[in-house]
């Protein structure tokens, strides 16, 4: 069985593929690696996964391992006693450092010849 592909469709597919590659490269290499950029990316990540929701979900899942009569009290304790602002700042700082380590050049002693 032979599949018929028209020339315009092949050109369209090729053009779309090339355009996608160029856009991907532009996005990947567009932002310089600076402390401000790393902080911005960490903040963007925490906007997508808010720390408060993360800890509420964690408390709910941990409470499932407790006896039923202690679950609600545990969840209230775990969510009301947290300093979300301090945790968010610590998470941003940690992610910023991690992003630096992921993009940093390895030391000369770690490189293999």
Structure overview:
This protein has 113 residues and is an all-alpha fold. It has one domain. It is 74% helix and 0% strand. The radius of gyration is 24 Å and the shape is elongated.
Q: Give the radius of gyration.
A: 24 Å
How many H/I helical runs? 5
Q: What is the overall pLDDT average? A: 79
- The portion of residues forming beta strands comes to under 5%
Q: What is the percent of helical residues?
A: over 70%
Number of strands: 0
- Gross morphology is elongated
How many independent structural domains?
1
Taking the alpha carbons of the first and last residues, their distance comes to 52 Å
* Major sheet: none
**Structural class assignment:** mainly alpha
- In terms of per-residue confidence, which ranges show pLDDT below 50 for 5 or more consecutive residues? none
> What are the secondary-structure elements, in order, as H or E?
HHHHH
List the helices and strands and how they pair.
Elements: H1 7-30, H2 35-48, H3 51-63, H4 68-80, H5 84-103
Structural features:
mainly alpha; single chain; 0% strand; elongated; 113 residues
Q: TL;DR of this structure?
A:
With 113 residues, the chain is mostly helical.
